[in-house]
Amino acid sequence: MKVSKPGQVQLGLIQTDCSVDPALNLQKTVALVEKAARQGAQIICTQELFRSQYFCQSEDHAHFKLAETIPGPSTEALQQIAKAHAVVIVASLFEKRAAGLYHNTAVIIDADGTLLGRYRKMHIPDDPLFYEKFYFTPGDLGFKAWDTRYGRIGVLICWDQWYPEAARLTALQGAQILFYPTAIGWHPSEKAKYGTRQHDAWETIQRSHAVANGCYVASVNRVGHETLAGVAGDGLEFWGQSFVAGTSGEILARGSVDQEEILIVPVDLENVDTSRTHWPFLRDRRIDAYDNLTKRYVD
Fold it and tell me: Among this protein's residues, is 95 annotated catalytic?
């Protein structure tokens, strides 16, 4: 039974591990999305690149075969679920736009099954075991917000989490909830020394987006220890802990470190207006003084 209180919306966060079989990953995620819908979720978000293991641990041309068109098999399957259960779905996919042109993309599907739009990841990392620049062309659609049946949402992806500009520009378009499909974890050899610090920084920066913009933040991460065939080293240990932060940055719900689960989290969208009027950061912005933000560095 879906909630009926005006302004209240149930979020569903799908946190899973991934096998080497894309078809099985899609099948599992589809089943979990349906389960979340039956449990009352109204806006459901997957983790980043849920159809595969995190292939960006290496630069391998064979991995381009994992990409699909949009619309395509995954969007069609999820559109059917959205329409059947009257839910909004945010799903993260490896998009094949054209030969040699690929994006890390999230699709937004409205509660009637309509493919409402897509967001292409704007900030692309290139770090050890996170070689995304090899695969993904930077997004060219800008930062957007969409009116869905259950609220106005914005979507950003993983590495975008670290950029307050991305959150701000999305919130300035009226987004009440920022969704962040994510694939982030530890290098196992570094976990003992840096693990707590790395996770705390990741969660803190996203909670700060909620505070600065007076909106909800929902971050969906994967779990599991993934090592890829042919890649030296001990792989990546994804730290899970998907969460929803309230409009003052408070943690409303947090997932486990290593378990697959569905988080069902009620949020009250009326709190967005309350937060933005009591903490009027948008009102007090000095837009006349921010020209240097468009520069790489100010000498």
Answer: no
Residue 299 belongs to a domain: no
Q: Which of 28, 45, 48, 215 is catalytic?
A: 48
- Report d(CA 61, CA 186) in Å as an integer: 25
Q: Is residue 114 part of a domain?
A: yes
CATH at residue 189: 3.60.110.10
Distance CA 48, CA 182 (A): 5
pLDDT, tens digit, 9 for 90 and up, residues 203-229:
999 999 999 999 999 999 999 999 999
Task: Taking each helix axis as running N to C, give the angle between helix 73-85 and helix 22-38, from 0 to 180 degrees, rounded to the nearest 10.
Answer: 10
Domain that holds residue 116: 8-283
- DSSP secondary structure letter of residue 68: B
In a domain, 83, yes or no: yes
> Is 158 one of the catalytic residues?
yes
Active site residue 250: no
Domain count for the chain, please give it.
1
Kindly name the residue from 18, 45, 56, 158 that is annotated as catalytic: 158
Please state whether beta strands 216-220 and 243-245 pair in parallel, antiparallel, or not at all (unpaired).
antiparallel
CA neighbor of 293 nearest in space, from 138, 139, 165, 167: 165
Average pLDDT, the chain: 97
Q: Is residue 92 part of a domain?
A: yes
Among 121, 132, 226, 237, which one carries the catalytic annotation?
A: 121
pLDDT in tens, 234-249: 999 999 999 999 999 9
